[in-house]
Amino acid sequence: MGRTLPTITQTLHAEEADWRHFRRALRREDQEAFDALWRHARRHAAPAAMASRALPLEAALMAMLVGLARQALDLERRVAELESHGGLAL
Fold this sequence. Notes:
The protein is mostly helical. It has one domain. The chain has five helices and no strands. Helix 3 packs across helix 5 (56-84) and helix 4 (45-51) packs across helix 5 (56-84). The protein is elongated.
């Protein structure tokens, strides 16, 4: 019988667990940022699975970048909206 490969979700959890000592060494506010990055990776697990990368961390990092870019775009849109309504002057 063939060996079953782990799912991307299992792989991401294992990768995150491998970084637990690094996380523990971070300051609390940096731990929160670290956790947010992994939330982005888990949120984009399906696209990461479609990437079929040899190194799962590559897909996780790209998912983290997508999540951060989305946050930045959302904030830029919000600032532009506030500026257009006179609610924020820069």
